[in-house]
Amino acid sequence: MTESRSLHGRLLTDTGWVRGDLHFDQRITAIDTAHADPRDDAEVPLILPGFIDLHVHGGAGVDIMQGGTTAQTVARAHARHGTTALLGTTMTAQEDDITRALEGLSAAIATREPGMARVLGVHLEGPFISAQRLGAQPPLVVEATLADVQRLHAIAPIKVLTLAPEIGQHLALIPALSALGIRVQLGHSAGSYDDGVAALNAGAAGFTHLFNGMTGVDHYHPGIATAALAHAQYAELIPDLQHVHPGAIHTALRAIPRLYCVTDATAATGMPDGEYALGVQRVHKCLGCVRLSSGSLAGSALTMDQALRNLVSLGLDIADASHRLSRYPADYLGIDDRGRIATGAWADLVVLDHDLRVRGVVVEGDDIALD
């Protein structure tokens, strides 16, 4: 059992910033502000809820689709950057390849090994997408059936599923998927604004990497992104400042109350420039950017601590940026004991200096080695 311990700093709690001591074992047991340290705030670390990344393909040179123990490697790599919980994310692929990836994820979900972020479940990104909006996905798309999803869901719990609502019977399938506890996200879609609105009315919950891999904001022919800006409560966005222009990020921040951020990280994350796997595709990392040989963006090399710094560089205050990396993704999944610093919540924490550099990470009360 994890021993009881404490951290001192400026704590971003459910009620805002406080200065004091955070006591915890596996969960937060108390927040003590009665004897605040008299040192100057510049010397006191910032303690935020651990980051929750709902779209992670890889890291440390390996890809979730490789199966086996790659999910554990990915979860360790991202934990060192403050990610305390994540969804392992698949690619469009042949059925056997998806099955292999989910079998590997199942083991990582069942047991959190030392040094790992908690793997909460699966984000199934493909194969139920549009051939017209593949992005970096290979052309192996299929139309979803409830039986297909139930079979995959039985291997490893699907928490988020990306689909194109305009295809076949996908719109009619959304209520049944929602009844399974799956958050249906609209993405990799050539659908219209009306398709997006109909999917939201049917129970779709969010949007996959907003603006990327979907029809846009043409004022004569509005698309899926316009439906998100007009009606969504939640959507994910990649804030690497490559996938989405800062002006479009600000637009989304004003329009979508609980816009949250993801990395869409690939095997190239944390690695030097070079060639890496993304499902059956090969991607190239150069100067921090990940692309297919065609030049198209193909996921990212982003980490959540850099996402925080990017959001702050755009003018968000630290608390707002933190909510979009922790609280909102937890709320989106219906989890009320992660993504916040509150008594009874899991002790998932990231300790930052005043340059917002990671100085410590705690997952369920356990310290993560940063080197």
Automatic annotation (TrEMBL):
Its EC number is 3.5.1.25. InterPro entries: Amidohydro-rel, GlcNAc_6-P_deAcase, Metal-dep_hydrolase_composite, Metal_Hydrolase. The keyword Metal-binding applies. One of its GO terms (molecular function) is N-acetylglucosamine-6-phosphate deacetylase activity. It comes from the Bacteria. Residues 47-365 form the Amidohydrolase-related domain. Transmembrane segments: none annotated. It is an enzyme of class 3 (hydrolase). Keywords: Carbohydrate metabolism, Hydrolase, Metal-binding. The keyword Metal-binding applies. Pfam families: Amidohydro_1 (PF01979). CDD domains: NagA. NCBIfam families: nagA. Belongs to the metallo-dependent hydrolases superfamily. NagA family. This is N-acetylglucosamine-6-phosphate deacetylase. It comes from Stenotrophomonas bentonitica.
